[in-house]
Design a protein that fits this description.
With about 350 residues, the protein is α+β, with helices and mostly antiparallel strands. It has 14 helices and nine strands. The strands form two sheets. It has a six-stranded antiparallel β-sheet with strand order 1-2-3-4-6-5. The chain has a three-stranded antiparallel β-sheet with strand order 7-8-9. Helix 5 runs antiparallel to helix 8. The longest helix has 20 residues. The structure holds adenosine-5'-triphosphate and magnesium ion. Keywords: ATP-binding, Kinase, Nucleotide-binding, Serine/threonine-protein kinase, Transferase.
Length: about 350
């Protein structure tokens, strides 16, 4: 299905040609899936005789110095983190002009596929998934590693151990986002950039990012697991970027009236435009969400009016910034004089 442009230089023909071939000590067995900049295969690690997921990145990424340096650095950091909810990276390297990562093969599906199939999830399921992703992100942040591309496609869901833990969730793809490159002009016209549904305002405006950009992206994902759609949906990318920067997210309870109003306040804080106004960690956000959900009987039933009274908008980021000179209309538009 995916054409040559879809995965940035790994055309469908070539990708399937790789089945059965050997790449850096791995025997390629089957294609698992493909995203905007890579194809992921199930492969056999010939040295250790085990199944792995082998991710091959589009060749032009290897030619981009900024990307290659960050890829090498961040795959090393990610490989050093030993956490139950982070996909273990076994090896990352370069062979014949291709960057590759070998990691644990996670049998299951990603959260994107789950949401596409099931729509909004029950609160308990969404809560279990959120708690696991939050622990992975907070662990990465404690190693000074910012994910930058938290989204349902990077959250893998395997079968859990028992009925108390029906799913085991893994976060993957640290430092593999192409967004910062595309926003600084790396991509060429028509190249697939990836989703902008989860991108933080400071990533858009090119300010330095830290762990709090993951709090924002994670909050967009949590919102989607509960609402069935991310907080901002717009017909074109520019409008979507604008919404992340300046629009208040629609209250989650509009889409999930079964949830108490207190949830809206928690979500608004996690999605605050200014990083300083967000929760200090993903775990803090999940804990606040959990207590907002469990506060339900008292708040929602005894005081139904709180639903309306709770300030749901994100803290006001103030008016949009003044347009730079070059962006102002060439033909003067004079403000209308105040009416009589
Ligand atoms: N370790 C893994 N084990 C099993 N499946 C995996 C693994 N890593 C990735 N996948 C699957 O491979 C597919 C492609 O992943 P990939 O990361 O290339 O794309 P994506 O994250 O969906 O999109 P993008 O390229 O925008 O990041 C996804 O469906 C994902 O679920
Ligand atoms: Mg991915």
């Amino acid at each position: 299905m995916a054409g040559a442009g879809q995965n940035g230089g790994l055309p469908a023909g070539r990708a399937s040609d790789l089945i059965g071939s050997r790449i850096a000590g791995y025997q390629v067995e089957a294609e698992i899936g493909r995203g905007g900049m890579a194809v992921v295969y199930r492969a056999r690690d010939l040295r250790l005789d085990r199944t792995v997921a082998l991710k091959l990145l589009a060749p032009e990424l290897a030619r981009n110095d900024t990307f290659r340096k960050r890829f090498t650095h961040e795959s090393r950091v990610a490989a050093a983190i030993d956490h139950p909810h982070i996909v273990p990276v076994f090896e990352a390297g370069e062979t014949e002009g291709l960057l590759y990562i070998a990691m644990r093969y996670v049998a299951g599906q990603d959260l994107r596929a789950l949401l596409n199939r099931e729509g909004p999830l029950p609160v308990t399921t969404a809560g279990r998934i959120a708690a696991q992703v939050a622990s992975a992100l907070d662990a990465a942040h404690s190693h000074d590693l910012v994910h930058r591309d938290v989204k349902p496609g990077n959250i893998l869901i395997a079968e859990g151990t028992d009925s108390d833990h029906p799913e085991h969730v893994y976060l993957t793809d640290f430092g593999l986002t192409k967004k910062s490159l595309s926003l600084t002009g790396f991509t060429t016209v028509g190249q697939f950039v990836g989703t902008l549904d989860y991108v933080a305002p400071e990533q858009i405006s090119g300010r330095p990012v830290d762990a709090r950009c993951d709090v924002y992206g994670f909050a967009c994902v949590v919102y989607e697991t509960l609402a069935g759609a991310p907080p901002f949906k717009r017909d074109d990318d520019m409008a979507l970027l604008w919404a992340h920067q300046f629009d208040a997210p629609p209250p989650l309870t509009l889409l999930r009236p079964d949830l108490p109003g207190a949830v809206d306040t928690v979500v608004a804080k996690a999605l605050a435009k200014r990083p300083d106004d967000r929760y200090g960690s993903c775990g803090e956000f999940v804990a606040a969400l959990r207590s907002a959900v469990t506060a339900r009987p008292r708040e929602a039933a005894a005081h139904p009016a709180t639903r309306v009274d709770v300030p749901v908008a994100a803290p006001d980021p103030g008016p949009p910034p003044e347009l730079p000179g070059w962006a102002r209309p060439a033909v003067g538009i004079t403000p209308r004089a105040p009416g009589p």
